[in-house]
Amino acid sequence: MKTSVLSAFVLVALVAFAAPVREAKVLHHPHYHDGQVAFSYLGDIWTADESGANVRRLTVHVARDAYPRFSPDGRWIAFSSARDGNMDVFVVPTEGGAAKQLTFHSSDDMVLGWSPDGSSVLFSSNRRESFTNKLYSVSVDGGMPVDVGADMGYYAGYSPDGSKLAINRKTQAYWRKGYRGANQSDVMVMDIGAGRFTKLTDFPGMDRWPMWSPDAHIYFVSDRGDAGIANIWRIPEAGGEAEPVTSFSEGEVRWPAMSADGRVIVFERDFGIWKLDLASRQTSAITLRIGAETQESLTEVRFFRSEADDYDLAPSGTRIVLSIHGEVFTAPTDEGDMAQITSSPWRDKEPQYSPDGQWIAFLSDASGREEIWIAPASGEGEARMVTEVDVLKSSFAWSPNSRQIAFASSDNVLRKVDVGSRRTTELASCEWGSPESPTWSPDGNWIAYTRANHMRTRDVYLVPSDGGEARQVTFDAYSDFAPVFSADGRKLYFIRSDRLEAALNDQPAADIYVVTLVREERDPDEPQVEESEREEPQAGPRSRGRGAAREPGEIVIDWAGLERRTRQVTQMAFPVVSFAVSPDDQTIAFVSRERRGPRSVPVIYTIKPDGEELTTIHTGRGGGPEFGFFGQRSGISSLNFAPNGRTLFFQEGNSVYSVSLGAGGPAGPPSGRGGSSAKRVEFAAQVKIDKPAEWAQMFDDAWRALRHRFYDAAMHGTDWEAIYARYRPLVAQIGTREDLIDHLEMIGELNASHNGARPAPEGDGRGVSTDHLGLQLERDDGAGRYRVVHVYKDGPADKDWVRVSEGNYLIAIDGEDVRSGDNFWPLLNHHLNEKVEVTFAARPSGDDAWKTRIEPISVREFGQLQYERWVAERAEMVEELSDGRIGYLHIQAMNQPSLQKFEKELRAHRDKEALIIDQRWNGGGNIEQQLLTILQERQYQIWVPRGTKPSYRPAGGFFGPEVVLQNWRSGSNAEMFPAGFRALGLGKVIGTPTAGAVIGTGSYRLIDGSTVRMPGVGVYLADSERTNMENYGVQPDIYVENTPEDNLAGRDRVIEVAVQELLKELDESRAEVGASIR
User: Which H or E element spans position 637?
Assistant: First the structure.
């Protein structure tokens, strides 16, 4: 294979005066036609000669344009664009002109290519009609897109005569490297007319982006071969052995596309565009030198009105410190001027006032690492770095004398630093995770913190601030966390949760407890000071667990009897997520996250330390930027008492509020804002954003966060530093945030699941949301109308007054006549009223038409109806095939609603002899322990009230034979479940291997609101080898997979095999048990 470089000096005249000319990198999605190459760059579609000459910017739009494909005659280019907030299909003349929109659904449509005759555009989309993407074509003249007839599909290309398609029915993320498993892409051929499918490749790695050549071969990208590098391969269209076409030993091939004449393939490699001449198999880099600007301004002055990422209250109570888009400001709580503390391209966050009010500490990555810095609170003077430890700092706290800072870190060590000398001292470490929530005793002698144990529950510990042995303070088997000292230092408050391990969306009980650290010489509930004798609190440092409201004496801890001196303060029906203690120790303010229908609503209460006088202070809106208990959003955070103890500050959403504690009322069911007198703290700040510098910071931040938080310290065997060195220089070429997110494909080098980056929501009001009528409509070209073929149960059209049934015809939507082939989605994207007027008729002529009003549902809600239809069909199959002997249930996700549904349906199937537990298409969550506990239950007693028939105990569980169904889309916790099911001997597993995607993950927020997933918890089998379940894939006991033909015909071969297996087991070995259960 020969390699050459084509280059030319090109200047785009339109913007030559504004941008320097340079060799363009980070070019995407190339296509080739007759000496020209089309590609996406800076969010637009471009064309150029293959020599690099005549570069033209074909589209000029602020929205992202991508995936350009020449029509076979070269006159048009089809592409996808996010002009309506999602990717739709457009076409534009190759010579330039106005773009024409062809699709109008709010799901993303990815252009794949053209039909050989140039009459239609092929694209992939997930319109919630199935569990995966499907393939559609849309006429260049417009109209309703047509399903091409494949049961699923992500990438595809037509055969030269248009009678067949080469398809990838499934795929991994394109940027993930080295994956081997059941969720990888193979090449399959579909005979469109006959509806037959033939699998050409069966490699456990990647066989992606099939391209059908006139030479009777199908070309594709594969990482097969000893080097494991993605190269172009080919295979005979009739099947046979695959052979390599390119042989790169480094630099992956991505996004290939074949010219219409089958002579050339262009592709991405090494962040640029390459060409492969198929006749000679010569590859050459196409070098493009472009001077152009992005469509968005690279420098922006953004105004923030009363919006901040984090805040803290000054000890005086008269100012707050704020982090706003990576900069630190202070603002008055009432009236006065703002002051800017930091100004840099780096990210400064989580500011805290020192107890004496003279300094502000914050986290910053200005040094290239996340370190603690301090700056004068006056805004005068330079900030300086006080730590120099290459770890992430999860939380930190000032000492009462403002001379030291304690901090917890990602290497599971609790440290303190002297801010004057910058000397850092290790205080404590933990084998089971990072210490959390360090807080100083008022006398400065002790630091309380939370520490995990081998059960992954948490306890509160105390460690001497000058070093020494850390000692346990709380001893409950549940989790104790978030310690806060009383202002006199004699007591330590904390939250106790009764959940050993939370399930997603669960509501564990969590209340405030208190332990008295000194001997109690009198009844703690006996009033010590009459109200008339109580002194007015004086201005000064307020208690938040970091300081005290009055000078404390030295506390001598009585370690004996700590458990006996621990008592409960609150008894809430919903979990407490955070709290604060007033400076005079007389009031506790706390947030409870309460269930209000489908929403979780945060409510602020106050209570006396003796548990009396529970008062509702403020009812929140629900949601918000801060995560509360067990990583769920609490909506309200950062409670801080003012020095007078009668005003409470807090953050809700991105705003800071204050509320007078005299404004509340007796606790009761919160309603609306609860009559709260909460007042927003008003401020205005402007931040100058240098976007290229910010994108560089975001890239570094994501790389650094993964370096410290990825579950495997060896980074799956990658050289993470070398990967940074390879990708980082290209950040200078990035011109849009979407380009940055694409460039974070660096993450794919880890070959890990639960990974990836997501851009921040635009928040500019752009975008459409396609609504659904709850009907399945089919084109009836003979009648010239759409015919109703299914009314979704419990959907918006499943109402008595709608009077629509199968066989009726759709005549009009909101008065607009709808004919067969018309694209009616625009009518459901923009409708004036909440309900849509729909006209139906029994005859296509419409002479018997009637009008009705339907309140349409969202795409997501339609997907749920489609799911429920799929489940009902399988339950009916099982009932029929087993003659009613076997029950069936499906677990949609590993979350709390699914757990509740599972328990309910398990009871409904108690009279069945056997049970099928289907968890195909289940993406995971965290309830496998609860499921397995329920399924391990065994019958132990019979309950017979007088005069009644017997019932059996326990009330839960199932006691007959069971099987679990899985497939290649069963992932994460839906892999841990079948693995545990088999390990515990509960039954057989049937289906395909699972995805091999098992890591506990979280999410890390970047400076602009974009997020990067953080897979931080490894999961291993309890075998002698301690097998890592990531990239493992749970193998079934009985392998069976539905073919595309099965899926299209509505047949479920997996269900059939499961029924056969259970009937066999019932008849052979468990008939007697089944009869006794009945």
Answer: strand 636-641
With CA atoms as reference, report the closest residue to 492 among 474, 521, 514, 524. 514
Q: How far apart are CA 998 and CA 974, in angstroms?
A: 9
Supply the DSSP symbol for 908.
H
Assess contact for 256 and 265: CB atoms under 8 A.
Answer: yes
The DSSP symbol for 1020 reads: B
The Cα–Cα gap between 815 and 851 comes to 10
Contact 206, 155 (CB under 8 A): no
What is the overall mean pLDDT for the chain? 91
Mean pLDDT across the stretch 399-414? Answer: 97
Q: Which amino acid is at 401?
A: N
- The residues, any chain, with a CB within 8 Å of residue 204's CB and separated by 6 or more, are 180, 181, 184
Residue 47 · residue 56 · CB < 8 Å: yes
Q: pLDDT at residue 949 above 80?
A: yes
3-state secondary structure of 92: strand
pLDDT of the residue at 499:
60
Q: Which two tokens stand for residue 44?
A: 């637009």
Q: How many residues does the chain have?
A: 1078
**758-816: per-residue pLDDT in tens?**
998 875 556 789 999 999 999 999 999 999 999 999 999 999 999 999 999 999 999 99
Upstream peptide bond of 954 is cis (omega within 30 degrees of 0): yes
A 10 A CB-CB count for 807 gives: 9
Question: DSSP readout, 295-323?
Answer: SS-SEEEEEEES--SEEEE-TTSSEEEEE
Tell me which residue of 309, 304, 413, 301 sits closest to 362, measured CA to CA: 309
DSSP string, 828-891: HHS-SSSSEEEEEESSTT-TT-EEEEE--B-HHHHHHHHHHHHHHHHHHHHHHHTTT-EEEEE-
CA proximity to 467, closest of 419, 406, 524, 421: 406
Distance CA 145, CA 383 (A): 59
DSSP calls for 797-822 = T-STTT---TT-EEEEETTEE--TT-
| 262 touches 166 (CB < 8 A) | no
647: closest CA among 559, 739, 799, 537? 537
- β-strand partners of 59: none
Beta bridge pairs of residue 33: 36
d(CA 308, CA 674): 24
Closest alpha carbon to 193 in 226, 163, 161, 157: 163
Q: Dihedral sign, CA of 757, 759, 761, 767?
A: negative
Identify the three-state secondary structure at position 332.
Answer: strand
Rounded distance between C-alpha atoms, residue 264 and residue 247, angstroms: 17
Strand stretches in 310-422, DSSP E = 310-313, 319-324, 327-332, 339-340, 348-353, 359-364, 371-376, 384-385, 393-398, 404-409, 413-418
Domains annotated for the chain, with CATH where assigned, are 3-290 (2.120.10.60), 775-857 (2.30.42.10), 882-996+1033-1077 (3.90.226.10)
CA distances (Å), 267 to each of 38, 114, 283, 285, in order?
A: 11, 18, 10, 10
- 847, exposed or middle or buried, with CB in 10 Å at 0-12, 13-18, 19+? exposed
Written as six digits, the tokens of 503 are 């399930």
Burial (CB count within 10 angstroms: exposed 0-12, middle 13-18, buried 19+), residue 636: buried
Q: Can you spell out the DSSP letters for 10-60?
A: ---GGGTTTS--EE--S-EEEEEETTEEEEEETTEEEEEETTS-S-EE---
pTM of the model: 0.91
By the 10 Å C-beta count (0-12 exposed, 13-18 middle, 19+ buried), 855 is classed as middle
- Got the DSSP string for 661-723? GGG-EE-----TTTT---EEPP-EEEEEEEHHHHHHHHHHHHHHHHHHHSS-TTGGG--HHHH
Name the residue among 119, 113, 164, 159 with its Cα closest to residue 139: 119
How confident is the model at residue 555, as a pLDDT? 84
